[in-house]
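From the pipeline queue, job 12 of 40. The input is one protein chain; the requested action is below.

Action: predict structure.
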Amino acid sequence: MSLKITDWAIEDRPREKLIQKGSSSLSDAELLAILISSGTKNKSAVDLGRELLGMVNNNLNALGKLSVSDLVKIKGIGSARSVTIAAALELGRRRKLAEGPEVPQIKCSKDVADIFQPLLSDLVHEEFWILFLNRSNKVINRMKLSQGGISGTVTDVRMVMKKAIEYLASGIIVCHNHPSGNLNPSESDTKITQKIKEAGNLMDIQLLDHLIISEKEYYSFADNGLL
């Protein structure tokens, strides 16, 4: 039977350790223990944190993809603690996004990937986004056009053009993610890229690139000569 955290030496308790030594001194399991708050009769909060990490092979990115229904499968976590953990992980994701590099002007595909990787890399469903640019390739705005399931999302070319006109964009870059991690463009990816390009030519709005994002890498249609 594990000792309760209250039975530990004060300097070893996660909350006290964080206060005295800073958050970086805590292990992932100890940080989760603070969110979990308390353990069960046979497990401390740290034990529960270790068990939770064990579900994802100690991979925090994989942990961030778990839903509340996945988290409650750990005996002793419960729905309230699952919601707390999910909220904390989402805050971490949003902080990563807020700290992302500001790219006022797009010069290459990596500039685009730096914008969208924090948004899309760890999603378990597909999303389709548009980046609106002026004549100097400076970013005017960005928006999510659609959201789908694991294997696809619907993209309406008319809506792409409508939004580009509303923002008075001279150029656009579209981007979507592949949760599977496979960066190869599908046939539908290629077709929708061509349709957007042709519609843009009619409206004098240039499609500059289409990126496919995975967890750590990206694929650029422009870099691969497909635009």
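Job complete. Strands lie at 127-133, 139-147, 171-177, 206-213, 218-220.
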